[in-house]
Amino acid sequence: EAQVTQNPRYLITVTGKKLTVTCSQNMNHEYMSWYRQDPGLGLRQIYYSMNVEVTDKGDVPEGYKVSRKEKRNFPLILESPSPNQTSLYFCASSLFGRDGYTFGSGTRLTVV
Amino acid sequence: GQQVMQIPQYQHVQEGEDFTTYCNSSTTLSNIQWYKQRPGGHPVFLIQLVKSGEVKKQKRLTFQFGEAKKNSSLHITATQTTDVGTYFCAGPDNAGNNRKLIWGLGTSLAVNP
To answer: What is the pLDDT confidence band of residue A31, given thresholds at 50, 70 and 90?
Structure first.
């Protein structure tokens, strides 16, 4: 089944403890993106990637890192999480970006 | 900066009533995409419109792209409880590529059975 898989679905962590949210797609898509969703603020893009080793900042990249070493994987790294990074995170992928994005099920992150 | 605005923010309807959400861009768009997010779920791609004045239908859903390619609408005929969710529109940034989408804040639809 074609899908975007994010892990974990839920995560509670403490301030400053590095964490990684994994994202993997099995559709051989070129484009991948990370979003955060907060009440009243909609979907905000954190980072995106057009292909292996090609990434760029979205609207809210501060405090996040990404890498794209393989086409299928696009992990989101929080080196030193802070409470303002408590949010719902979505990974999404698209073949060329022209045909819509497939979203993962989301990761609800709480930083205390 | 480039913005995509959606109205209304919320809509509450009785089952069987029609529903329309509008999407307005501050700039001309090369295309517009629509997504639906069920409560507790993730956004699901519904459709993409590319041509000026384009109209597409998916069962009870009708999507329209304005002649100037700056606005779009989604109309649902005879809503059902399965239509509940938030509907988002999104368009590519001014560079015209789809790797960076500008999103509206969405319209949340509630349907009373």
So the answer is: very high
Residue A92: list chain B partners with CB under 8 A. 43
Helix (H, G, I), strand (E, B) or coil at B15: coil
**CA-to-CA distance for B97 and A98, rounded, in angstroms?**
8
Written as six digits, the tokens of A82 are 């802070």
Beta bridge partners of B45: B35
B42 touches chain A (CB under 8 A): yes
Residue B57 token pair: 């239908």
Q: Where are the beta strands (DSSP E) in chain B?
A: 4-7, 10-14, 19-25, 32-37, 43-49, 55-58, 61-65, 71-76, 85-92, 101-103, 107-112
Q: For A97, which of B47, B97, B105 is closest by C-beta distance?
A: B97
- B93 at interface of A, judged by CB pairs closer than 8 A: no
Quick one: residue A16, left, alpha or beta (phi over 0 = left, psi -120 to 50 = alpha)? left
Tokens matching residue A47: 């980072």
User: Along the 113 residues of chain B, how does pLDDT read in single tens digits?
Assistant: 889 999 999 999 999 999 999 999 999 998 999 999 999 999 999 999 999 999 999 999 999 999 999 999 999 999 999 999 999 999 988 765 656 889 999 999 999 99
CA A23 to chain centre: 7
Q: How many residues does chain A have?
A: 112
